[in-house]
Design brief:
Blueprint lengths: L15 H38 L7 H23 L6 H28 L5 H9 L3 H8 L5 H40 L1
Length: about 190
């Protein structure tokens, strides 16, 4: 008579592969949460810099452009600080920084679209979009409720979406990932 035994997975120690997977999945929630927190702070910094850039002063660009770089880099560093022990090396810091920078850029894009809708940003861009139509085309579009003002508004908002939303999010993510990569070097 032969006896067969059944092994239960819970009775044995975890394999090294399971331990690696458990380590990977445990800090994921904390890295996402820390990235969102740092992204909110970075988005607020981008919003403040957008407001400062509206002040009509000639040499203000000398302060605003480096200000964006500082905000992006510190967003990545802040994401690393919020993540704490979840960031062990530069690769992990870069990931956390990228997520934080991307969310900061998304917030900046949403703010820019709202400012463009109120006619504060990209005013000439929207007017140039409306000027692309001939008078005959404009009379045809008026029948559909598209006046030159509505076309200019749509041009401003879509331009802000493209420039500040899409491109801004990518640039913000890039520089914030550099800040995130710097964090493990500074913390050790």
């Amino acid at each position: 008579m032969t006896a067969t035994t059944q092994r239960r997975q819970g009775e044995f120690a975890s394999s090294p592969r399971r331990q690696r997977l458990a380590r990977r999945t445990q800090p994921a929630g904390s890295t996402v949460t820390s990235s969102l927190k740092a992204g909110l702070v970075g988005g607020f910094g981008i919003f403040l810099l957008m407001l400062i850039s509206l002040v009509p002063f000639e040499f203000l660009a000398c302060l605003v452009i480096p200000g964006f770089l500082v905000v992006w880099l510190t967003t990545g560093l802040l994401a690393g600080i919020f993540a704490g022990d979840s960031v062990q090396n530069s690769h992990q810091g870069g990931k956390v920084g990228w997520m934080a920078g991307f969310w900061a850029g998304v917030i900046g894009g949403i703010v820019a679209m709202a400012m463009a809708a109120f006619g504060v940003l990209m005013v000439n861009f929207g007017q140039n979009v409306a000027n692309q139509f001939t008078p005959d085309q404009l009379t045809g579009l008026v029948n559909y409720g598209l006046t030159p003002e509505v076309i200019a508004l749509a041009g401003r908002v879509s331009g802000a979406l493209l420039v500040y939303g899409v491109i801004g999010s990518l640039v913000s993510g890039l520089f914030s990932s550099i800040g995130g990569m710097i964090y493990p070097k500074l913390s050790s």
